Amino acid sequence: MKIEVRGLRKQFGSVQAVSDVSFEVKEGELLGLLGPSGSGKTTVLRLIAGLETPSGGDIYIDGKRVNDLSVQDRNIGFVFQHYALFKHLTVFENIAFGLKIKKWQPADITQRVAELLQLMSLDSLEHRYPHQLSGGQRQRVAIARSLAPRPSVLLLDEPFGAVDAKVRQELREWLIRLHDRLNVTSLFVTHDQEEAMEVSGRIIVFSKGKLEQIGSPAEVYEEPATEFVARFIGAMNILEGTVLNGVVKIGSLEFPAPTIPDQVQLQVGFRPYYVKISEEPTRYRQTATLRHIYFLGVAYRLEIETAEGLILRSRMNKEEFRQYRFEVGQPVSFAVTQFRFLPQEGISFPSSALPQLLDAGPLTP
Amino acid sequence: MTTHSLIQLALRSASVGYVALLILFPLTAIVHQSLVGGLDHFTQDISSPQAASALILTLEAAFITTVINALFGTLSAIVLVRYEFPCRWFLNALVDLPFAIPTLVTGLMIAAIYGPTTILGTWLHQSGISVLYDKPGIVLAMLFVTMPFTIRSLQPVLMELERDQEEAAFSLGASPWTTFWKVTVPSVLPGLLTGVFLTFVRALGEFGSIVIVAGNIPMKTQVASVYVYGEIESYNPQGATSVSVFILLISFLVLILLERLTRQPGERMPLWLRWPKRPLSMIHPSEIGSQP
Question: Count of CB contacts below 8 A, A vs B?
């Protein structure tokens, strides 16, 4: 295990910023810490770096407990959200800073910096000052500077937060390639779920200082462990209902829940692409009115309203969309083809109900 | 010529005209007057024993003032920006007060504390330390008047300096001490230099408070500004202007040096002010004339 965090806690005054967080980062992994702002993900990163002192719990890097090591001695590379480049130093001097501190020989420093300049496609910029660089270039200098002294882990705080959308996309792809090439264990913080999905091998989802779920991008997307994850990762329709005779009935929609006792309140979640819509009124069992059509570039999102006033979102790709002739305001028929019950805080289910919770099956139209 | 460039021209002329009218014209007048009797006369005026002694005393006191206020001003600025404590806002408001108080009143306040009839004054006198009517009094007056400069020049740059630059240095293995000297100080240097140089030139010209606390004993506690005042009082405008122009010349040189030193690295600057820190061969072509 490259990084291990056990029962980590951090309190700022009366605010519990991080509560009882445990996870592991494997050697060579690129792991994303994902959560809304204020969810404690940056604090976790800073605790690992040694920029904050934990209120409780242990941090291990390379199998060694580092709680009592200062940030200087942890041998980590840290990339700050706003680059934090030394404004009075050139690109070369910025990258060489850590090497000079570590008393490298001048010849070795020159060689290492040249190597990094080339790796980061920054050649010929070494005598520029930070204010003479573009946002993307600054971010690459920041990464080069943190990598120069060969840190054992690389920690990145919202690495692409401060650049515009197009550069962000380029930097993401570039980071993935860089990681493939260097294979340095990396942990990065982001609030952008798309970015986390695209860049990381595994994702840790945070909310309110707590760890909600760890898993591959596909796992957190397809099998959200909590309501929060379901809402935060991608779009999801979430409805609330009560079990009666093994069925959760919400308006005219029925979701079978044979193993769950009566009177239990449940949340039902289904992704927009599991809502099938047709302009033929009898194609599917349910009926509704088409309220909005949103063009998303690669796909369309349709919003429908049932007779009971439930608003549901559906998603289909362009080819599918072209087979129909949808018009806003027209009646449509629809079906939910797959759904899952979402685990909720404060509600415990009997163990017999668990299999169904974890694997809600397809629904026949 | 478009309307836009007309407006630009008008704006530029207005600002140049304003500076010229308020500063350049009076300055030219006094420089002209000091040289009416020829350069020999000018050098004679400033090298007369009394004038030279006043000039040396002024430079000495201003230098001591600058060093003290640079140190304590830096400390105060750091404390005011970085630390939360009760009444910080009050202390922050107090800093500007020396700008608002007439300097004569400043002199009166210092005399009221250190005067021979006060408890502190009596005690100091018994201990053999002279403050009033001596050099320490002059420095005290200069310190009071120039206190805001370092603090107010440093505060904005300290606020702008994000903590993460220092944290970045820590993460690269730099100790807090190394970080302070290699990251914090260079980053705030333009602000610090501005404060220090303004302190120095302001101290050179101080009159109102010193005339009250210094005693003005020729060759002993008479500073340049008070000497100039004396010369005017005794109908010797020529001597007064010569010493004034000399002080102005020093201030002007100091301010030009400041302008040179506080430019951002890599910024374009007039050739006559440019002397490279590195050999020219090491300057990359991309640096010259490139703007972000």
Answer: 92
List CB contacts (< 8 A) between A72 and chain B. Answer: 170-171, 173-175
Interface ipTM:
0.79
Q: Which of B165, B168, B292 sits opposite A133 (nearest CB)?
A: B292
Taking contacts as CB-CB distances below 8 angstroms, the residues of chain A near B291 are: 132
Superfamily of domain B38-262: MetI-like (1.10.3720.10)
Three-class HEC string of chain B: CCHHHHHHHHHHHHHHHHHHHHHHHHHHHHHHHHCCCCHHHHHHHHHCHHHHHHHHHHHHHHHHHHHHHHHHHHHHHHHHHHCCCCCHHHHHHHHCHHHHCCHHHHHHHHHHHHCCCCHHHHHHHHCCCCCCCCHHHHHHHHHHHHHHHHHHHHHHHHHHCCHHHHHHHHHCCCCHHHHHHHHHHHHHHHHHHHHHHHHHHHHHHCCHHHHHHCCCCCCCCCCHHHHHHHHHHCCCHHHHHHHHHHHHHHHHHHHHHHHHHCCCCCCCCCHHHCCCCCCHHHCCHHHCCCCC
Tell me the chain B residues in contact with residue A125 when contact means C-beta distances shorter than 8 Å: 286
Q: Does domain A235-358 have CATH number 2.40.50.140?
A: yes
The proportion of chain B whose per-residue pLDDT surpasses 70, expressed as a percent, equals 90
Q: Do A84 and B174 touch (CB under 8 A)?
A: no
Residues whose CB falls within 8 Å of the CB of residue A186, separated by 6 or more in sequence, listed in order: A29, A30, A31, A153, A154, A155, A156, A179
pLDDT of A234: 81
Architecture of domain A3-230: 3-Layer(aba) Sandwich (3.40)
Q: A102: which chain B residues are within 8 Å (Cβ-Cβ)?
A: 173
Residues of chain A with pLDDT under 70: 1, 343-365
Q: Give me the residue spans of the domains in chain B.
A: 38-262
| Interface contact flag, B162 A145, Cβ < 8 Å | no
pLDDT digit string, tens, across residues A157-207: 998 877 788 888 888 888 888 898 888 999 999 998 888 888 898 999 999
**Selected residue of B84, B172, B192 to mutate for chain A interface (largest A Cβ count, 10 A):** B172
Global pTM exceeds 0.80: no
- Contacts of residue B173 in chain A, CB cutoff 8 Å? 72-73, 98, 101-102, 149
- Across B259-281, average pLDDT: 53
The answer to whether B167 contacts chain A (CB < 8 Å) is yes
Which sequence spans correspond to the domains of chain A? 3-230, 235-358
Chain A touched by B189 (CB under 8 Å):
yes
- What is the least distance, in Å, from the CA of A35 to any CA of chain B? 22
Burial category of B162 from C-beta neighbours within 10 Å (exposed 0-12, middle 13-18, buried 19 and up) = middle
